[in-house]
Amino acid sequence: MTHREPAHVLLSARGLTKSYGGPPVVDRVDFDLGERAFTTLLGPSGCGKTTILRLIGGFERPSAGRILLDGRPIDADPPERRPVNTVFQSYALFPHMNVFDNVAFSLTLRSGTGDIAAKVARALDAVHMGEFTNRFPNELSGGQQQRVAVARAMVAEPRLLLLDEPLSALDRKMRAHLQVELKDLQRRLGIAFVYVTHDQEEAFALSDIIMVMNAGRIVQAGAPQEIYRRPASTFVADFIGGASLVSGHILSATADRAIIRTALGTFEAPARPAFTQGEPAVLVLRPESLAPGRVGEAVPATVRHVTYAGQDFTVEAEAHGVVLRFAAQEAPEPGATVPLAVLGHKAFVTAA
Amino acid sequence: MSALLTRRQTLASIVGGVAAGALSLDRAKAAVSELVWATWDSNAHPEYVDPFKKETGTAIKLSFLSSEDAQFAALKTGAAKDWDVVNPGLNGTWRYIDAKVLQPLDLTKIPNRQYMYAPFKDTDKVVGKDGKTYAIPYLWGLNPIVYRKDKYSEEPTYATLFDSKYKGQLAMRDYALESIAVAGLFIGVPRDHVFTMSDAELAEAKKALIAQKPLLRTYWQTIGDLTNLFATNEVTCAFSWRVPFDALRDKLPMGMAKPKAGIFGWSDCFAIPATLSDDKVAAAHAFGNYLLGADYASAIAEIGNYATSSNIIRDKLTHEKQEAIFVDDLSVMNSFMWPVAPPNYSAWLKIWNEVKAA
Amino acid sequence: MPDSRQILALPVVLLLLVGAILPLTILVVISFWSVDFDAFELVPGFGLASWREILGNPTYPYLIGKAVLTGGVTTSLTALAGYPLALSLLRLPKRWKSVALVVLLTPLYTGEIVRIYAWRLVLGTDGLVNSLLMGLHLVDAPLKFLLFSPFTTALALFYDELPFMTLALWIALERLDMRLVEAARDLGARPLPAFIRVTLPLTSTGLCAGALAVFALSAGDMQTPNFLGGPSGATALASIDNFFGTAFDWPTASALALTLLLTLIVAAALLAAGILRLGGRPARVAR
Question: Which GO terms describe its cellular component (chain B) (predicted)?
Answer without folding.
Answer: periplasmic space
